[in-house]
Task: structure prediction
Amino acid sequence: MAVNYTAKWDYKGKIAWITGGASGAGLGQAKFFGGLGAKVTIVDIRQEAIDKALDELKALGVDAIGFKMDITNREEYIAAADKAEAHWGGPPHLLINTAGVNSFGPAEASTFEDFDWILGVNLFGPINGFVIFVPRMIKAYGADIKAGKTWAQICTVSSMGAFDGYSTDAPYSVSKAAVNNLSYSYYDALKPYGIGVTVQCPANINSNIGNAVDTRPAHLQNTGYYVSEGTKNMLKSIHATGMDPVDLATKLCYAFENGLPICIPSYSNDANALVERSAMVEQAYNKTLDWMTVEGMAKIKAAEEAQAAQMASFRKKWEEEHPGEAPPSMFGPPPSDSGVPMEAFGVARPELDFVRAESRKA
Ligand code: NAI
Result:
């Protein structure tokens, strides 16, 4: 069901800069804001994906250009920003930090390179965007914004992973927690200039992020995580059920046009439910508060014991009903279309024998 929202601001002739714009959420933003008349620059690390995305955008009548660059490389970032500014005649009115990567494995197996790659793209990429563009946006548009003649807005795509720590995606959740915090700081700082700052925290997007490891640079290949075509297939099958990227862009637009610093896109089937006050975030904050007291920890322990007892009872019932059969695994899906069977992701490489067997590839 298409999202039901009509944009209120005027996008005709406004300049947009979208990192990761060749795929997934970023391409959805390029289609949505370009479709409203914005002049769009997409930047991405994959040239062939940029070419394909520009063809798609052109077919939709979007005025777009694209540059291959690595958002973690400051020289490349500045050079591309200068080229886009020369092309369009100004810096972006709409800066969207979307490019991001992930890879999953136990925290204890993580290497420096796992942290450097994921934090480099997901945190330092947006930091580079803020540092390079904020002064340019204030100088170019500050006076006109004050006079009510134009607008400027910054968005960053984070994740629901920002609100908690997770044993199998430490670098990713660290990067997303930090990028949320970055966005909150700039939200306060840029309020006096009239520049809006919004961070969007989706749960699952129909995108190509399952292939993110293919963009990992040569000097950061050393990983503690087990990665194979099978783990990629598993991720791809999960993301295939994610939110449509243009719907996600529509929800982002609703959030910033309504002055929301945080956009939790609603996964409800109701086309009018655009964002939500997330129960998951409330749960994560309640857990954090419980971690601060002895009583809170006792409450958590009791809940964990109740959950373990419930799982044991389900298992006993299943074994009684299926005598002699092995219980189904959470990770036992059918083979993927590619013919390569899916494999569980989030485990360590087999040779890391200090990692407990349950968290390691056999
Ligand atoms: P995607 O893989 O379809 O798009 C990300 C794009 O970023 C790719 O085209 C990739 O080539 C590009 N990229 C990667 N490293 C780069 C670099 N160093 N410099 C320039 N470009 C680079 O994935 P998706 O899902 O659209 O990701 C967009 C954002 O959404 C990311 O920040 C991701 O963390 C976030 N997100 C994704 C979720 C999902 O379920 N797919 C859920 C929550 C958040």
Observations:
- The mean pLDDT is 95.
- Residues 15-278 form a domain with the Rossmann fold fold (CATH 3.40.50.720).
- The pocket of NAI is lined by residues 19-20, 22-26, 44-46, 49, 70-72, 98-102, 121-122, 157, 159, 202, 204-205, 207-209, 212, 215, 239, 242 (CB under 6 Å).
